[in-house]
Amino acid sequence: MCDLPAPYGLVLTTAASRTEAEALARALVAERLAACVSLFPVHSVYTWQNTLEQQDEWQLVIKTDLTLFPALETKIRELHSYDVPEIIALPIAAGSADYLNWLGASVSPLSPLSRVSLQNQDDKSER
């Protein structure tokens, strides 16, 4: 276990459908705003515009570096179908050093060499 001062955390949001949740997840990971996004179905009960509502939704658990929160929030708002999407950040107090190192590397900006390597992998997978 690693006690960390690094600003890693979980960001929670919900989406109206699996399709929307997957699109959000792919965009966040592709843009290196998230290392990983876990998705699962949930049933929510809430008040919206003074009316009690309940709805099946998809919960996204986004693992990220919280210093990226402003850009991550902007991307979620850009892609989200809700007027007021849930966007809540929770810090990670401790975790596996190996996992947290991977998380940090996954959201770090890519070096030019890494971009070329990834592009080559993409080119090979399209053949």
From TrEMBL:
UniProt cross-references to InterPro entries, sorted A to Z = Ion_tolerance_CutA (IPR004323), N-reg_PII-like_a/b (IPR011322), N-reg_PII/ATP_PRibTrfase_C (IPR015867)
Q: Which GO terms describe its molecular function?
A: copper ion binding
Q: Name one GO biological process term.
A: response to metal ion
Check the record and name the Pfam families matching this protein: CutA1
Look up the coiled coil feature and give its residue ranges. Answer: none
Family stated for the protein in its record? Belongs to the CutA family.
Record-given protein name:
Divalent-cation tolerance protein CutA
Source organism of this protein record: Thermoleptolyngbya sichuanensis A183
